[in-house]
Amino acid sequence: MTKKQKKTRNRILIVLGIFIVLLILEKTGVLESLPTIVRFLIFLVPYVMIGYDVIKKAAVNISHGQVFDENFLMMIATFGAFGIGEYPEAVAVMLFYQIGELFQSYAVGKSRQSITEMMSIAPEIANVIGDNGEVTEVDPSEVSIGDILLVRAGEKIPVDGVVVEGESFIDTAALTGESVPRRVTKDSDVISGCVNGEGILKIRAAKAYEDSTVSRILELVENASDKKSRMENFITRFARYYTPVVTVGALLLAIIPPILGQLQFADSIKRACIFLIVSCPCALVISVPLGFFGGIGASSKIGVLVKGSNFLEAASGIKTVVFDKTGTLTKGEFKVTDIVTASESGISKDELLEMAATGEAFSNHPIARSVFTAYLESSGKKDIDRTSISEADTKEVSGRGIETVYNGKKLLLGNSKLMNENSISSFAEAVAVSGTVVYVSYDGKFMGYVVISDVIKESAKDAIAGIKKVGVNKTVMLTGDRKDVAEDVGRQIGIDEVISQLLPADKVERVEKMLSSEDNDSKLAFVGDGINDAPVLMRADVGIAMGSLGSDAAIEAADIVIMDDDINKIPSVIGIARKTIRIVKENIVFALSVKVIILILGALGLTTMWLAVFGDVGVAVIAILNSMRALKIDR
Q1: Higher-confidence residue: 300 or 409?
Q2: Which of 60, 91, 357, 501 is most buried by its number of CB atoms within 10 A?
Q3: Is the pLDDT of residue 252 over 90?
Q4: What is d(CA 69, CA 243) in angstroms, rounded to the nearest whole number?
């Protein structure tokens, strides 16, 4: 509890004690012998102690032209109760209203806690190492790209960067929800907001503070509450008209029956007070936003940032999920997955890989680097022997591959076009493998081929199964890759439909077609990470971006950001969204049903002010308790 909440709690306990004593004296007839003015003053003391702030708020709001709110309703209802001599009921109404307000304040604090923990990730200082080796402590916003920073054990990484010296384990839990520390060494990428667990790291700043991960997260969190769902907007509009209507209704209920001679003024005012107490919209005005806040908080606990309750509401209706392939379902890392030697080549797989790696040694193409890296990993060497080849003899043939001279003889590394153009007739024209095939020819003879594939994420298959389990009807993969490669990936992870060989503009067109075929209640989500995915992320009903490795443009365009790139969290956030909407609807139906029943009973004189208190405070507390369920993550 906060200091203010504790103060309110203590005030409630003191007044509750006084009220119980007075209620016992009232029910045993001790206070009946006292003059009315004395009884009035005796009950006025605890009333003022517990309700002075409500009356003050009502007066201030009225002076600002904001008449119809819950403070006004409570003030008028309790003044009316005092006016007809229902002193214990007047104190009870204000007392239990304050208990409900305290409970509400505590619940809001709890639901905010998981989000405000995000706000604590902001680094307070950055240690910049100068040219002379001297360390200067500066504000993170003063760090420039290229600065070398010192991060000691227990300190937060101030900006996104690359480790240039040191080795450590960093705690990413505040950003990603992942409890296992991540090991970083020289050349490892690190993101701001993570905590250095042990050792000392020297980091080269890759981004300015305002462009770093931590700054973007804080901006998303701060703006999340501004983007309200349709349900929240409905409740806000509903309360704006509802409160004046019930106030006028209570006034008519107090005046008309006595004028018509059907009731005494005391009875009609009592019914009007009950009407006012029950009509207080606290249960709706608080529980609905609290439910959405709880859902956003539950998402942040697992490392998923939802930019607003409107996006959480949209996520609850997702029936189709469309994925980009590279970097989303796959790691975006080219690796050698197979080595095949020709039967007539007479060489081993290791020799074929060494030959290919030597030929690729001077190329910076991703495929060339993957072959080169595979050789170093398999051989355990730090570099390759380049004496058998020279850079002057090596040339890259655009769209074909590489031609070079290896130990005095011609070496070709490339696709089928390169082989055909050099009359290498014995190579396998159509290799039935998934991935990029690098054919190897030496001295005019076909030696074999190396297969390079984009590695599928370990979590992809489980994520697709999980997405279907939470009620998504269809999964689609859009990619610019070759048809056979794309279909093989789709088959391995269980994607329903694969659409390949697309340009970025084609992806938008495809998503447009899918959106036009969706019904009004169904939503389409697009999951991507690259800068070319930004237009599609913006066009989809719900855009989901990979936050850790994703591009800035994709994160900016998306509605939901997965901070650690784990697509297994997509079914989790859809589940959280659906649970949140279910809870919010339960609260609306429950609150309105109970209030309408008690309002009718009160207008007919068939209920008491105590039941009216339950209709207000009791219903609000139950709705708030129900809303807090949204914070709980179902595993």
Answers
A1: 409
A2: 91
A3: no
A4: 7
